[in-house]
Amino acid sequence: MKLYLISNNLLLDGLDYDNKTNLELLRILRPLSISGEEEAFKLSKLPNFKDIDAIYSSFHSSAISSAKYLSNTLELDIRLCEELNDCKVGTLGSKNMKMVKGLQDHDLTYKLPNGESLNDVGDRMKRILNKLMAEHHNVVVYTHKRAILGFLLKYAKIGYNLDENLILEYNNHIIYDDSETTSDIYEIEYDDNKLIDIKRI
């Protein structure tokens, strides 16, 4: 049994919203860039996905847009699930996203008012992914980098590099670092609904 977690990180920049008060809604509505669409098409052709029996996506526009290519290739519907949404930021106040990310990377319980900590999103992701793996054999989930990070934190060894950026190690391999990537794909293997391996592909 295999679970694939995919985050397409190529989102459209240069958007100007009339109403900037609802940060979570703006994050949900943010679409893929043109290169993000190209990346999603390329990912849909990976041979790893030939035996998939279910495709799930968060409610975010970028995740749905990424999932549509694999949906078309495999002729499977996209199942939308709000529990796969990105880590909820909350009320920024005087802080900015970069500052919040840095604080959360060093304190897994830190969260803003109305937001989630990395521990919170990890608990949420673990619950829903365990449920999906109990219902299916091989699943692809289109979600987000911070949501995936929260999940990986439940199983990986935490460390920091020389720049104090978060890194995660599993079975003596680095599976997460803070480098900017076009996409992140993780292959997670289960045996009898128990997680037995994590690989970054």
Strand order of the largest sheet: 3-2-4-1-8-9
N-to-C SSE series?
A: EHHEHEHHEHEEEEE
Shape: globular
Report the structural category: alpha/beta
CA radius of gyration = 16 Å
> Could you tell me how far the N terminus lies from the C terminus, measured between alpha carbons in angstroms?
17 Å
Q: Please tally the β strands and state the result.
A: 9
Q: Determine the strand fraction and express it as a percent band.
A: 15-25%
What about the largest sheet? 6 strands, mixed
Our count of helices gives: 6
Helix content: 25-40%
Mean pLDDT: 94
Please mark out the parts with pLDDT under 50 across 5 or more consecutive residues, or reply none: none
Oligomeric nature of the chains = single chain
Your description of this structure?
Helices cover about 35% and strands about 25% of the residues. It is built from six helices and nine strands; from the N terminus they run E-H-H-E-H-E-H-H-E-H-E-E-E-E-E. The chain has a six-stranded mixed β-sheet with strand order 3-2-4-1-8-9, sandwiched between helices. A three-stranded antiparallel β-sheet has the order 5-6-7, with no helix packed on it. Helix 5 (about 120-135) crosses helix 6 (about 145-150). It has helices at about 25-30, 35-45, 60-75, 95-105, 120-135, 145-150; strands at about 1-10, 55, 80, 140, 155-160, 165-170, 175, 185-190, 195-200. The protein is α/β, with parallel strands linked by helices.
Summarize the structure.
This protein has 201 residues and is of the alpha/beta class. Helix content is 34%, strand content 24%.
